[in-house]
Specification:
The chain is α+β, with helices and mostly antiparallel strands. The chain is built from 3 helices and 6 strands. The chain has helices at 6-27, 87-106, 142-148, and strands at residues 36-45, 48-55, 59-68, 110-113, 126-133, 139-141.
Length: 153
Protein backbone atom coordinates (compact mmCIF):
# COMPACT_ATOMS: atom_id res chain seq x y z
CA UNK A 1 0.00 0.00 0.00
CA UNK A 2 1.45 3.41 -0.97
CA UNK A 3 2.12 6.02 1.72
CA UNK A 4 -0.27 8.99 1.79
CA UNK A 5 1.25 12.22 0.53
CA UNK A 6 1.48 15.31 2.70
CA UNK A 7 -1.05 17.00 0.40
CA UNK A 8 -3.51 14.15 1.02
CA UNK A 9 -2.96 14.34 4.78
CA UNK A 10 -3.47 18.13 4.78
CA UNK A 11 -6.72 17.84 2.84
CA UNK A 12 -7.97 15.06 5.11
CA UNK A 13 -7.21 17.12 8.21
CA UNK A 14 -8.93 20.17 6.69
CA UNK A 15 -12.04 18.12 5.93
CA UNK A 16 -12.02 16.70 9.45
CA UNK A 17 -11.78 20.23 10.90
CA UNK A 18 -14.73 21.41 8.77
CA UNK A 19 -16.74 18.36 9.87
CA UNK A 20 -15.99 19.14 13.53
CA UNK A 21 -17.09 22.77 13.10
CA UNK A 22 -20.33 21.71 11.41
CA UNK A 23 -21.00 19.17 14.15
CA UNK A 24 -20.30 21.75 16.89
CA UNK A 25 -22.61 24.25 15.19
CA UNK A 26 -25.38 21.65 14.98
CA UNK A 27 -25.00 20.84 18.69
CA UNK A 28 -25.49 24.46 19.71
CA UNK A 29 -27.70 27.16 18.30
CA UNK A 30 -25.49 29.83 16.80
CA UNK A 31 -27.26 33.16 16.37
CA UNK A 32 -27.99 33.81 12.69
CA UNK A 33 -27.24 37.25 11.31
CA UNK A 34 -24.85 39.99 12.25
CA UNK A 35 -23.77 40.29 15.88
CA UNK A 36 -22.04 43.42 17.13
CA UNK A 37 -19.95 43.53 20.32
CA UNK A 38 -20.97 45.94 23.05
CA UNK A 39 -18.44 47.74 25.25
CA UNK A 40 -18.71 50.06 28.24
CA UNK A 41 -21.98 48.33 29.16
CA UNK A 42 -24.21 49.79 31.87
CA UNK A 43 -27.38 47.96 32.89
CA UNK A 44 -30.32 50.37 33.18
CA UNK A 45 -32.94 47.74 33.96
CA UNK A 46 -33.76 44.13 33.10
CA UNK A 47 -34.31 44.79 29.40
CA UNK A 48 -32.36 48.00 28.68
CA UNK A 49 -28.66 48.77 28.66
CA UNK A 50 -26.45 51.69 27.69
CA UNK A 51 -23.34 50.75 25.72
CA UNK A 52 -21.01 51.49 22.85
CA UNK A 53 -21.86 49.40 19.76
CA UNK A 54 -18.81 48.29 17.77
CA UNK A 55 -19.57 48.16 14.05
CA UNK A 56 -17.33 47.09 11.17
CA UNK A 57 -14.72 49.45 9.73
CA UNK A 58 -13.82 50.82 13.18
CA UNK A 59 -17.18 52.61 13.49
CA UNK A 60 -18.59 52.92 17.00
CA UNK A 61 -22.04 54.08 18.04
CA UNK A 62 -21.21 55.60 21.40
CA UNK A 63 -23.32 55.69 24.54
CA UNK A 64 -26.52 54.23 23.05
CA UNK A 65 -29.53 52.98 24.96
CA UNK A 66 -30.54 49.58 23.64
CA UNK A 67 -33.71 47.75 24.61
CA UNK A 68 -34.26 44.03 24.22
CA UNK A 69 -36.52 43.37 21.25
CA UNK A 70 -37.35 39.79 22.19
CA UNK A 71 -38.45 40.05 25.83
CA UNK A 72 -40.07 42.46 28.27
CA UNK A 73 -38.63 42.34 31.78
CA UNK A 74 -40.60 43.31 34.84
CA UNK A 75 -40.52 47.06 35.47
CA UNK A 76 -38.17 48.34 38.18
CA UNK A 77 -39.93 51.72 38.58
CA UNK A 78 -43.14 53.52 37.66
CA UNK A 79 -41.49 55.67 34.95
CA UNK A 80 -43.30 53.83 32.16
CA UNK A 81 -46.75 55.42 32.15
CA UNK A 82 -48.28 53.23 29.43
CA UNK A 83 -48.61 50.17 31.69
CA UNK A 84 -49.87 49.51 35.20
CA UNK A 85 -46.94 48.68 37.48
CA UNK A 86 -47.54 47.05 40.87
CA UNK A 87 -45.28 47.08 43.92
CA UNK A 88 -44.70 43.33 43.39
CA UNK A 89 -43.56 43.96 39.81
CA UNK A 90 -41.10 46.63 40.96
CA UNK A 91 -39.53 44.07 43.32
CA UNK A 92 -39.26 41.58 40.43
CA UNK A 93 -37.92 44.30 38.14
CA UNK A 94 -35.17 45.22 40.60
CA UNK A 95 -34.30 41.52 40.89
CA UNK A 96 -34.12 41.31 37.08
CA UNK A 97 -31.77 44.30 36.96
CA UNK A 98 -29.56 42.80 39.68
CA UNK A 99 -29.47 39.39 37.94
CA UNK A 100 -28.45 40.99 34.63
CA UNK A 101 -25.70 43.00 36.32
CA UNK A 102 -24.44 39.86 38.07
CA UNK A 103 -24.47 37.84 34.83
CA UNK A 104 -22.51 40.50 32.94
CA UNK A 105 -20.00 40.77 35.79
CA UNK A 106 -19.32 37.01 35.36
CA UNK A 107 -19.70 36.85 31.58
CA UNK A 108 -18.83 40.33 30.25
CA UNK A 109 -18.88 39.62 26.49
CA UNK A 110 -22.25 40.96 25.37
CA UNK A 111 -23.35 41.19 21.73
CA UNK A 112 -26.40 42.67 20.04
CA UNK A 113 -28.19 41.55 16.91
CA UNK A 114 -30.21 44.26 15.16
CA UNK A 115 -33.87 43.47 14.46
CA UNK A 116 -35.10 42.72 10.98
CA UNK A 117 -37.88 45.31 11.32
CA UNK A 118 -38.08 48.59 13.18
CA UNK A 119 -34.75 49.61 14.70
CA UNK A 120 -35.99 51.99 17.43
CA UNK A 121 -38.79 52.06 19.97
CA UNK A 122 -41.13 54.97 20.76
CA UNK A 123 -38.59 56.35 23.26
CA UNK A 124 -35.80 56.48 20.63
CA UNK A 125 -33.86 53.54 22.06
CA UNK A 126 -32.19 51.12 19.66
CA UNK A 127 -33.76 47.67 19.61
CA UNK A 128 -31.86 44.40 19.46
CA UNK A 129 -31.53 40.82 20.58
CA UNK A 130 -28.81 40.32 23.18
CA UNK A 131 -26.43 37.37 23.35
CA UNK A 132 -23.73 36.63 25.91
CA UNK A 133 -20.61 34.81 24.68
CA UNK A 134 -19.78 32.64 27.67
CA UNK A 135 -16.34 31.66 28.84
CA UNK A 136 -17.13 28.03 27.99
CA UNK A 137 -17.46 28.98 24.31
CA UNK A 138 -21.26 28.89 24.03
CA UNK A 139 -23.87 31.54 23.29
CA UNK A 140 -26.50 32.45 25.87
CA UNK A 141 -29.54 34.27 24.50
CA UNK A 142 -30.32 36.86 27.15
CA UNK A 143 -34.07 36.30 26.68
CA UNK A 144 -33.60 32.65 27.73
CA UNK A 145 -31.67 33.72 30.83
CA UNK A 146 -34.36 36.21 31.84
CA UNK A 147 -37.19 33.75 31.11
CA UNK A 148 -35.55 30.97 33.15
CA UNK A 149 -35.04 33.38 36.04
CA UNK A 150 -38.73 34.34 36.06
CA UNK A 151 -37.97 38.01 35.31
CA UNK A 152 -40.41 38.57 32.43
CA UNK A 153 -43.67 40.52 32.62
Amino acid sequence: MPRPTSKFIARTLALAAVFCLIRAAAAQEIPAGALFPLTDVAVLDGDTIRADVRLPYSITLEDREIRAADYDAAESSRRRKTVKVTDEEIVRGKAATAALKELLAREPRLFVQPPTGKGQDVYGRLLGTFYVWRRDGTWLPLADFMRQGGFLR
